[in-house]
Amino acid sequence: MCRDPDIDIVDLGTRPSIRLPMLIEALRHGKHIYNSCPHAPDWAGAKAIDAAWDRSKSQTAVDAFSRYLPAHQKMKQMVDDGFLGEILGGTCHFNLSLFNRPNKKFPYNWFSDGTAGVSALRNNGGHLLYLLCEMLGPVKELVADDSQLLKKWVFEDGDSLQPETNDHADLILRFVSGASIALQASWSMTVQEGWTIDLFGTKGRLQARSPTFPTVQECQLRAGRIGETLAPVAIAYPENPDIAMNWKSNPAPSYPMALTMYSLVEAIKGHGLAFPDFALALEVERVLEAARIASDERRWVEISSVV
Prior knowledge:
This protein is of the alpha+beta class and 307 residues long.
């Protein structure tokens, strides 16, 4: 496939450890890449991808498509327009109940594999970080606790599995801008909370929420200024005439995924930039590596120290 001259774009969606050599080989042959999140299995893999990308002329995009949801786009617009004033802090959660009552038919039971390059922080937390870094800019430093809550997954028939991956993480992120954000990511929360990005500043507060993985239909935005209560924000749902689906298309992630792919196709044509691309992916992986070090060594870690 990588050597086939009739293939322009390679979409890589399997587990990070398996697709790493595929991705590097595809870049070596000049293919444009649509890559999944997590971007890489670890920091070494992320640097290997970046080196291969730097040697190529490929356009790239990462499947962190939540930035295309109307609620998040409206939230970013309001942040950019100064609704919050000086951003002071906030909390972000992405907490699911994937394995509290495990099902043998669930297609992601391989999340238990310690060699796969996944964890609640790398997966759930990674999706949060793509949006936070776009909205708030780079992270300056962090402290983290990355751990395993459920030591055993017990299936309905009594069979059990001992996962090798971490399923819960708590971080405090200090951004270059001065904002301090608490981030929690888990796939083992009993009665899942879902997705929340809650930001406040000197003038107001913004909150995007979804009961599960954020989708067009479920992700809602609320806002309030000092002296007010949070109230729903009206959201527009513009459609792209070049894409043969819309916001009502199923499965729910299909349209924002299509918008991400569309940005890649347009970049290949020389019309703008693909986003999120591998440059942002590298910075997200740098933050994830800093969190690994911080958790292992029980200390604050400067992001710039991760090289």
